[in-house]
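If your schedule permits, I should be very grateful for your opinion on a structural question. The matter concerns a single protein, recorded as an amino acid sequence and a row of backbone structure tokens. Could you please explain, in whatever detail you think fit, how the structure tokens follow from the sequence? I set the record out below, with my sincere thanks for your time.

——
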Amino acid sequence: MFLNIVTLSFKVNIAYRFDFITGIISEIVRAVARIAIWAAVYETNILISSAAPSFSQMTTHLIISGTLVTRWEFQGLIRSIDQSVKSGDLSINLLHPIDYPIYLFAREVGNYIYSVAIVALPAVLILSFWFDFDWPDKFSYGLLFVAFWFVGFTIFFLIACLFGLLTIWLMTAFAIEWLLEALMPILAGILVPLWLLPEPLATLARILPFAWIGYYPSQIYLGRIELGVAWILLVGGVLWVGLLVCWISFLWHRATKQFTVHGG
């Protein structure tokens, strides 16, 4: 059933055949804007520390973290949960043979596969010819990048799902969307790399789950983290996945009890 939901979600996106063109253009424009900002920073040597990578590495980081691995619109998930709560459809999901959070994960995996395969990868390919783009030096780093990518998306989904389930009690998605939109670019190291953040914020950001969404995958891709440390970080990401799953399970259990008590 899980794979059927993934496939159906992918096919629904494929049905809108011309949306991918605007999606690719949009991703390229956003990436060019981010790169242009950092090009100006590098030219003036403003805020560049000894830990700063080369400009080609920074360009690669911006493309990998901002265009590829985070190419998923979490707002759709949060709004979907919010609308299900307000319309009462959430109580209907209690009758389905698959838990609602698992259904959401399968659906968003299908959406993400479409976004990456049809939009993000073509955009990255075009940007790699346009700018000085680095490729992994070692095959081992490439494999680790894929592992971090998968863990990062899972964490990304779980955080969005966790925030989305809060709408059951808050009855609004606007504030939650705004909060996550504000946190993501900074704590995930998408717009501002974590090495540029002041202490102790930088240290805190490195241990929060957001770092596994964008920052660590790009740093692994660039080979800026030693393999031994990378494996430890990968285990840390898996631990965050387990912790977030526990929190979501707790919230979903509370939510189902609430709907049952109120006759849902």
Remarks:
- The chain has one domain: 2-261.
- Residues 2-261 form one domain.
